[in-house]
């Protein structure tokens, strides 16, 4: 697996975009019941505050530096430049390479409208991509019987990669709970679904380089996100500053690799 570096209390995988695509497809080809998390600021702060969620990240096969500040923190503390590996970029890259290699995919989560638009785009742009199935689960906790039926349906479809979009931290908890039950590499990519489907715009590259994507998301969903961003972004800056000052006073950063 890819080497990991610690950012606050989370272990973040490192490598080039191509390294991530290769490693994830290898997990899928092996039918490894593993999962991949795409860690932004919200997820790193959530892990710092909640030990149970930190354990979920620790047990992920791969944790991508989804947020620009998370990727930058790898460089700040470990003197190792790291590019952002966003779920929105990873999804189309994996679909393209999966089509080339003959690997199959399954889309789980969000709405039927979004799933239909995703499948339409994939079939238009990647006619060789094997789409094993799609499913939009109800927006409520499943009964044990419903969950067992969904697991059976996914395993019967036998995808290499299972893309999951249930929102953070629900999708990460779902993947962790289904490790060992679903014979695929699971990836929590959340907001990448409506973006890939063409139902939600993404900021241009220059704005993403200025770390403005959070502001755009806040503009789209102010009622849902303003408290989260006010709380998590502020806490992330505070904790990173505190850690930087600690290192500056002679405390060395954690550099051991986690695999």
UniProtKB/TrEMBL annotation:
Transmembrane segments: none
Keyword presence, Translocase: no
Pfam family for this entry, one: Glyco_tran_WecG
InterPro entries given in the database record: WecG_TagA_CpsF
Keywords: Glycosyltransferase, Transferase
GO molecular function: hexosyltransferase activity
Protein name per the record: N-acetylglucosaminyldiphosphoundecaprenol N-acetyl-beta-D-mannosaminyltransferase
